[in-house]
Amino acid sequence: MLRPSLVAGLLFVQQAQAQNVTLSVDQVAGTWRLVAASAWNGSTRNDAPYGPAPLGLITYTRDGRVMAIICHSGRKPLASGDRISASTDERAEAFATSFSYAGRYSLSGDKIIHGVELASVQNWVDTDLVRLVRLEGNRITLTTPPISVGGEIRTTELVWERVQ
């Protein structure tokens, strides 16, 4: 029997092989708003990994820069409004329900590689985040390879819509 993480990995490879397209900067440049997110652990699909109405923006510039931020839906404001003096629990919740990064990007066939230069998760800095890309009209879908999230290996699919 195949392990869920192996199944998710095989699905990522199959999707990559099925695309067989070459992306251009003109196709991806611009700002995109997150409209849907789902995750697959090899056996179960979660259609709300960031809550029922997550927020996010990702911007690709023509000169090869990327900036992304994603926030879970239903985030609570800090009681004091001060991120430093907020309670440990409030800071932990704020950190766990939002992430962002910026850096350079490059295109390779049907993949986009985000070369992270700074991030809310320090471990991502100086790493490459590879995303399988599918373009459909004014929407772009980014799919991660299998990665560990919350102790579970999963593939995440994010659907973004071009901001006009």
Overview of the structural elements:
This protein is α+β, with helices and mostly antiparallel strands and 164 residues long. The chain has a single domain (4-162), classed as Lipocalin (Beta Barrel). Helix content is 18%, strand content 45%. It contains 3 helices and 10 strands. An 8-stranded antiparallel beta barrel has the order 1-3-4-5-6-7-8-10. A hairpin with a 4-residue loop joins strand 1 and strand 2. The longest helix has 16 residues, at 4-19. Mean pLDDT is 90; it is low at 1-18.
- Gross morphology: globular
CATH hierarchy: architecture? Beta Barrel
Low-confidence stretches: 1-18
Helix content: 10-25%
How many helices? The count is: 3
In spatial order, strands of the major sheet run 1-3-4-5-6-7-8-10
What proportion strand? over 45%
Question: How many individual domains?
Answer: 1
Largest sheet: 8 strands, antiparallel, barrel
Oligomer: single chain
- Strand/helix succession: HHEEEEHEEEEEE
Q: At the first level of CATH, what is the class? A: Mainly Beta
Residue-averaged pLDDT, rounded? Answer: 90
Distance between the termini: 47 Å
Report the count of strand segments. 10
Please state the structural category.
Answer: alpha+beta
Determine Rg (CA atoms, Å). Answer: 16 Å
CATH topology: Lipocalin
